[in-house]
Amino acid sequence: MKIGRFIYKGKEIEGIVKGKTVITDCGKVCLEETKFLPPCRPSKIVCIGLNYIDHARELGMDIPDEPIIFLKPPSSVIAHNEAIIYPKQSRRIDYEAELAVVIGERCKDVSKKEALNVVLGYTILNDVTARDLQMKDGQWTRAKSFDTFAPVGPWIVTKDEVLNPNALEIKLWVNGELRQSSNTKNFIFKVEELIEFISSIMTLEKGDIISTGTPAGVGELNRGDVVEIEIERIGRLKNWVR
């Protein structure tokens, strides 16, 4: 099922999305009459650098021996249909289409065998990056952490409807032009391996996000652009740049 968070008539609601209807504890609401909110409230977003074989080849980089991880702050999260704000400190920002894993329970030291048991479901994340600042700083924190640099949504699709997260088509368009097209079959580290690795380092809380890296085709965004990401079995996340 699709689980979402919304604003309806000035109030925050949560519900199950079926077609154009949101089913809540208080009844049914027309989806078109709501404003999307981020579908979860992560205490942290753990991101993976260089996790697609095609992206590594594109960059001419060696395949890593273990996952490369970094964090984005919760303050960077925005929802479907919200604006990405181009920061005044940057002269170049890039899109990065990513499958996001939403953790369903507090966990630590989870084995690969048990990893999917701690997953609530899956959503879409755009790991927006100030590429010039990443190059200037020599590390990723500032470049990845601006407010609005983690569009997430539009909802969470529960794991029972995504039986194999390691075999999903992923595509990104800018102003209707296809820029990224790949499949999570190209993961270097599968979802189960990522959960095992990350949970061996830090406790994962309910609602935390693991963003699984981006495929080949990363490129620039400009003010006024509309960026859309679609992942098989999940949906389409749409944002624009302001």
Describe the protein in words.
- The protein is mainly β and 242 residues long.
- The protein has two domains: 1-37, SH3 type barrels, CATH 2.30.30; 38-241, Fumarylacetoacetate hydrolase, domain 2 (Alpha-Beta Complex).
- 11% of the residues lie in helices and 42% in strands.
- It has helices at 53-59, 131-137, 141-144, 191-199, and strands at residues 2-8, 11-18, 21-24, 27-30, 35-37, 45-49, 68-72, 77-78, 83-84, 93-95, 97-103, 119-126, 129-130, 150-158, 169-174, 177-183, 209-211, 219-221, 226-231, 235-241.
- Strands 1, 2, 3, 4, 5, 6, 7, 8, 11, 12, 14 and 17 form a twelve-stranded mixed beta sheet that branches. A five-stranded mixed beta sheet has the order 9-20-19-15-16, with no helix packed on it.
- A hairpin with a 2-residue loop joins strand 2 and strand 3.
- The longest helix is centred in the C-terminal third of the chain and has 9 residues, at 191-199.
- The protein is globular, with a radius of gyration of 17 Å.
- The model has no long low-confidence stretch (mean pLDDT 96).
Nearest-integer average pLDDT: 96
CATH topology of the largest domain: Fumarylacetoacetate hydrolase, domain 2
Helix/strand order, N-terminal first: EEEEEEHEEEEEEEHHEEEHEEEE
Q: What's the total helix number?
A: 4
Helical fraction equals 10-25%
- Which oligomerization state do the chains in this entry correspond to? single chain
Task: Please write the CATH class name of the largest domain.
Answer: Alpha Beta
Structural class call reads mainly beta
Round the Cα radius of gyration to an integer and report it: 17 Å
Count of extended strands: 20
The fraction of residues in strands falls at: 35-45%
CATH superfamily of the largest domain: Fumarylacetoacetase-like, C-terminal domain
Low-confidence stretches: none
Tell me the major beta sheet.
12 strands, mixed
CATH architectural name of the largest domain: Alpha-Beta Complex
Number of domains: 2
Shape: globular
Distance, first to last CA? 32 Å
